[in-house]
Amino acid sequence: MKHEIPAAAAWSAPVRAGRTITLTALADNANASTLIIGADRLDRLNIPDTLKSQMSARIRAGMVLMSDRGLALATVVASGSDWHDCLIGAPPDRLLQLELAKHGFGAADLHGSVNFFSKVRVTDDARASLTFDPDHARTGDSVTLRAEQDLLVFVSTAAHPLSTTEPAPIAVHIETSVQTEPAEPGGPELRAEAVRALELTRELIA
Amino acid sequence: MSLDTVVEPGDGALLTVPANGRLRIVDLHGNQAVDTLFYDSHDIDNRYSAFDTIRAQRAVYLTTGSRLLSTSGDELAVITDDTCGRHDTVGGACSQESNVIRYGVHTRHQHACRQTFLTYGARAGIGQRQLTHNVNFFMNVPVTSVGDLRFDDGLSAPGRYVELTASRDLLVLISNCPQVNNPCNGWNPTPVQLLGWW
Ligand SMILES: [Zn+2]
User: Fold this and answer.
1) Nearest to A122 among B46, B60, B98 (CB)
2) Where are the beta strands (DSSP E) in A8-161?
3) How far is the CA of A139 from the centre of ligand 1 (A)?
4) Residues β-bridged to residue B35
5) Transmembrane segments in this chain: where (chain A) (predicted)?
6) Across residues B96-119, what is the average pLDDT?
7) ipTM of the complex
8) Residue B129: its chain A contacts at CB < 8 A?
């Protein structure tokens, strides 16, 4: 399935376990604010659990996106960038809320998001001050996630909340994947915590 | 004074704090994480949003002056006094399931903050869907310029406190963290004191 999400729009679709979803920036300064809800429609992407179990303040290749209840939702199997923002949240976006509403979700389901293609720099000062990096996303950048269980994926192409530039379109490509190993040969190394989440997910529901 | 109570580690509280009420959390023995969620008491879907709060202040750590915002962008409370100096809101709350991922299956039946949240939240209709990313008062989670994050020894000390002023009528859901697998409680969870004036 291929689809182009226009700038400043929202989109959602089911992504079955084992398939990959690739997002590609179709212009500089693209941003794809992404929410993920798991197979049982209650277990959501949990950014704090994802970060603390992998000792990271950003999303990059080789990380597993984890749910509220300790399962793997998706693995970042490839990424042109080593930094996708996940500390700022999705932009306040009526269209994204409408996509949630289509699937029966509401305000209670607005959880932390990954803002793919966007980088917010952290300063090593007393408050860990944040500044948006305006030169991060480039036309053609892409990121690929492998669904580790049946997912609902929500994407907003609104501009990053700290960006001052125009929003950009994003291409989505969902493919059947035959990849089942947690780590691809030569690919990014998964931490033990990520492997544990993948193993548990495969034993239980995938 | 409207409130003066001690919460043991592994226990919690659900408080109703009216607009302009002041709530003080005292770290009686030092280095004790107090996992806390805030809800508009008239609409629990209008709840604390860690990432909207971070975005608005353009900084990760919370301290005096931090405005705690809701998913609708409303100001729920402001940190008006802080003798610790720094609090976390990206580390989330411990759960039995995340303990398994981080520390192994032997931790599956250790009590965790999200059990406490569900226990105390139930009578206000706060269930799993209503649990979101919380504040961890007194917890030290350094986030660095190279994009790393870790749980570190605390910056707090016995008697240090944080005080919040409610910007509207609030429900405040508290779990005094029982975690023993990382340094967030100094490897030794201890009681905290809640003081309220309204
Ligand atoms: Zn805890």
Assistant:
1) B60
2) 10-15, 19-25, 32-37, 64-66, 72-79, 114-116, 120-122, 130-132, 142-147, 151-156
3) 42
4) B136, B175
5) none
6) 97
7) 0.97
8) 42, 108-109
Domain membership of residue B25 as a residue range: 3-140+147-197
Mean pLDDT of B116-122: 98
Q: What does pTM read for this prediction? A: 0.96
What's the pLDDT score for residue A170?
98
Hey, is A131 helix, strand or coil? strand
Tell me whether residue B15 is exposed, middle or buried, using C-beta atoms within 10 angstroms of its C-beta: 0 to 12, 13 to 18, 19 or more. Answer: buried
Instruction: Give me the sheet containing A151-156, strands edge to edge.
Output: A10-15, A151-156, A32-37, A114-116
Give the per-residue pLDDT at A107. 86
Alpha-carbon gap, residue B52 to B74, rounded angstroms: 10
**Distance between CA A12 and CA A76 in Å, rounded?**
18
Q: How confident is the model at residue A85, as a pLDDT?
A: 98
Query: Into how many domains does chain B fold?
Result: 1
- What's residue B190's pLDDT? 96
User: Nearest 5°: CA angle at B39, between B35 and B41?
Assistant: 135
| Domain of A110, in residue numbers | 2-205
Quick one: tokens of B126? 């706060």
Q: Which two tokens stand for residue A143?
A: 């990121």
Residue B58 to residue A87: CA distance in whole angstroms: 10
Q: SS3 for B77?
A: strand
Q: Which residues contact A154 (CB under 8 A, 6 or more apart)?
A: A10, A11, A12, A34, A35, A36, A37, A96, A99, A100
Using only C-alpha atoms, chain B has a radius of gyration, in whole angstroms, of: 15
Q: What is the CB neighbour count within 10 angstroms for residue B158? A: 12
Domain count across chain A: 1
Burial class (CB in 10 A: 0-12, 13-18, 19+), A1: exposed
Q: Do A108 and B133 touch (CB under 8 A)?
A: no
Contacts of A71 in chain B (CB under 8 A): 97
